[in-house]
Amino acid sequence: MVTTDVTTSSSTAPRPDENRMPRRRWFAELGWRHLVGVVAIAYALFPIVYVISASLSEGGTLTGSNRLFSEISTSNYEALGGTLFWTWLGNSLQIAIATGVGTVLMGAAAAYAFSRFRFTGRRVGLTSLLIIQMFPQMLAFVAVFLLLITLGNVVPALGLNSKIALIAVYLGGALGVNTFLMYGFFNTIPREIDEAAKIDGATHAQTYWTIILRLVTPILAVVALLSFISTFGEFIIARLVLQSERNWTVAVGLFGWVSALLEANWGLFAAGAVISAFPVLLLFLFLQKYIVGGLTAGAVKG
Amino acid sequence: MPTQPTLTGDATDPTGSAGGTSGPPGVRSRERDRPARGPVRPGVFVKIALMAVVNALGVFGVLAAWREGHMGILAAMVALVVVADWVYFSRRTLPLKYILPGLAFLLVFQVYVVAYTGWVAFTNYGDGHNSTKEQAIEALLLQNERRVEGSATYPLTVVERGGALGFAIVEDGEAKVGTADDPLSEVRDATVDDDRVTEVPGATVLSRQEILRRQAEVTSLRVPVSDDPNDGWVRTQDARTGFLATPTLQWDPEADTMTDVTTGTVYKATSDGSFRNDEGQRLNVGWRVMVGFDNFRTAFGDERYAQPFVKILVWTFAFAILSVVTTFLLGLFLAITFNDTRVRGRRVYRTLLIFPYAIPSFLAALLWSGMLNRSYGFINQVLLGGAAVPWLTDPWLAKLSVLGVNLWLGFPYMFLICTGALQSLPGDVLEAAKVDGAGAWRTWRSVTLPLLLVATSPLLISSFAFNFNNFTLIYMLTRGGPRFADASVPLGHTDILISMVYSVSGLDGTAAKNYGLASALSIVIFVIVATISAITFKRTKQFEEIS
């Protein structure tokens, strides 16, 4: 019923009598939608409103946070300075940005090769990627842990408790899902462009860096962002690899606060949560259009 | 170490080829004949610089692996460096120039790791079975030592030789020196003064201060008397006199047995990687062996694990399916609601509804765990007026809470994809249905919904696969709790398979480590997810899209 409405209304779009619809009919057709919308937004937003209020409360206990905006104080935010929160946030950003950039560089290069060159093993390569990606790295965390112990004996920078090692582990999954997402997008760029560039004397590297990569920027942004977000929120491997408190990520650190002493640290946690959610939320709203496209092309939140 | 070379190698690849290969195969031969003309591209220098870094790091890694005597890593490093050089300096490897960086990471940190998981699943790797048999024997002998009663004490000097601490003693008028790795042996040219060694060629005698500084090292040092570990070792407590300590266990390499010399009990080496006596008692240190399908048998057969395993398996499926269904239904309902172009402010609604999706899920789960707290939580205290509903501590309510929180987290995603799918429905098909006289409901049921499901089903399947392994949500919200009352293993009612693997592995410190069983469970999860994905891929013909 709704979809038929769409086609009819879009074909006859701006009806002059729209505003003069009888009130009853208006509610049956449109008014309830606003009602649903308001309820849905209340449902979607109340935890967020709650956490902001809790972060601004003076006391910082769970009980004290229940009276929304009864007091406004920045004490929780100031108290964050006395903890390792900012170190953790810095670690998280470093790791997530490095992983995001690495994922995009490697995924895009691989997708370009699969999309543009015809070589032996290409089909096998793509099919194997599809199969390997079914086994999430997270499932192999025991083996990751054991591998890093061994690597760390040889090169400490790649062993346990190293951020570089964690990034390397995350980059191991760079080709998986992303290659397919990008591969599809690369295929939509006409090959005639490559040909034209070649005739003009460009090498394939010039074509890749200066022409193709510019044309596929939207998918690069989506992959970078999705990779950033999933790395930012990754917990299981980060917790195993990063052992000293100074090296923790926000996910590991905040979990520690809340799981150990829920009551006492609640205000700190709320302030930390607001700060760490803020950049992601902004990025998300900013790049909304691209993300929706990327999602419908097959990505899942991580 | 394989990682860094390839990371930098990535940037190398396209620039590198700027100087070298280019053009289609047909042109190549002519190009090769052509002498290099014109200015050299800057890319060449970048490539050479980057490859130099790659090689330097590679050589560093190879040397480090050699020093540690780790042949597996050494071979992998050499292979990676050789392949990287070949790929970026050859003219015939154009596609590989682009694929290699990602591929190297993939091979080391995904393919190898998955294969290793497969191997560990068939071993008894875990607490008490950590290493090789030789190391296990050594550990057993060390752990069960005692001072030999009535044995002599030796005047002892602490020395440092080749970077390792050692003891120099005088026995029967002869000076002997040894370190932890090097049994005591006679030294001819040592200076002995008043029954005490004062100078050893090739070694430095530690001063009193140095000994004090390295006290812990000195008192824990054991210098073997001979190559046979059964003969015992020299130890010291004051760094001036040494005494002979021998293991209470006697290792017999011929019979492959350990004998307790105090009780006379004989422990035989068994195929399960431990020493066992006739009564079935085991020594506490064992070694790694292949145990075949034992871990899988434990998961499905051993009642300590089998019972919770079945419950957890069922709940994992229920959780994943219900999560997809509930989020999809709510998302679809909202998408339909706002799919009418006459609704004002649709953009505002959409933006606000995305908010939960943009919050990192670990934060959301922690936040909800506070709000659902029984005594102080916002839900009970404010929304329910002080009711003490045990949201996270009652088995069924905890499951409901998990689903509810996942609904909050997941519906915006479904809302987005349903909106996209609805908007891309072909108008002519709907028009045709109308012309054929179908009513609104009929059109929706027979045309819109099937088309919508076709468009979204791959996403629903991947969402299922994601939730099947949604560790973060479960762990942050309930940590798998409330615990099963009867189980001797730390598992609970809301645990899903992946969080079960985490608990069983013992890496969180709540239980004894059992890497073998954990890996076996990982394999089981993989088989389930892979089967479901394979069926879907077949149906959605994603394989055929690879042309």
What is the element layout, followed by pairings?
The complex is a heterodimer of chains A (302) and B (547).
Chain A: H1 2-11, H2 23-56, H3 75-80, H4 85-116, H5 122-132, H6 141-154, H7 163-171, H8 176-187, H9 191-199, H10 204-215, H11 217-233, H12 236-241, H13 250-260, H14 266-286, H15 288-296
Chain B: H1 3-19, H2 25-33, H3 42-68, H4 71-89, H5 94-120, E1 129-131, H6 133-143, E2 145-147, E3 153-161, E4 164-171, E5 174-179, E6 185-186, E7 191-193, E8 196-199, E9 204-205, H7 208-213, H8 215-220, E10 223-224, E11 233-236, E12 241-247, E13 249-252, E14 257-260, E15 266-269, E16 275-276, E17 286-287, H9 294-301, H10 303-337, H11 346-358, H12 361-371, H13 378-383, H14 395-423, H15 427-435, H16 440-468, H17 471-477, H18 497-505, H19 515-540, H20 542-545
Parallel strand pairs in B: 1-17
Antiparallel strand pairs in B: 2-12, 3-4, 3-9, 3-12, 4-5, 5-6, 7-8, 10-11, 11-12, 13-14, 14-15, 15-16
Helix pairs in contact in B: 1-3, 1-4, 1-5, 3-4, 4-5, 5-19, 9-10, 9-19, 10-14, 10-16, 11-14, 12-17, 14-16, 15-16, 16-19, 18-19
What's this, in brief?
By secondary structure, chain A is mostly helical. Chain A has helices at about 1-10, 25-55, 75-80, 85-115, 120-130, 140-155, 165-170, 175-185, 190-200, 205-215, 215-235, 235-240, 250-260, 265-285, 290-295. The two termini of chain A are about 35 Å apart.
